[in-house]
Design brief:
The protein contains 5 helices and 4 strands. By secondary structure, the chain is an alpha+beta fold. The mean pLDDT is 88.
Amino acid sequence: MPAQVLWLIRHLFSPTRLVCELNAWFATQLFEWLVGPCDVVSVDITQGDTARQQNSGVHIRKCRYLEQSQCVGLCVNMCKLPTQRFFTEKFGIPLTMTPNFEDLSCEMVFGQMPPALETEDVAQQPCLTDCPSRQAQAPRCPQMGTKTA
């Protein structure tokens, strides 16, 4: 995306409730081909001591990328972190992604600042059963330590 367009988005569209809700709607329309069927959902957004509910969540029913890769590290390093970074830093719209490794779904929350990876459960996630890099005795995915994005 051209730098001028990103600058305009960052400076003309602050992450208001409406902007975050529109991003969620656009995500369900534009990303389904990539990640699979998804729906806009209501989420709680917390900022400091205040919380509000808004329709700026996207529930990906079963992520195609995670289903095909079967790898926690690839999901986190190639999807979660780069996507969060792109929307938060380049668009100026905070995004938090939370993959569910049990049912291979994922939740995207526009308007919520992503926490530090080290504070999330995903950082300690072991390999999935069918992961090609699986190390049965490893307490967490061995790919989690690699920086690919």
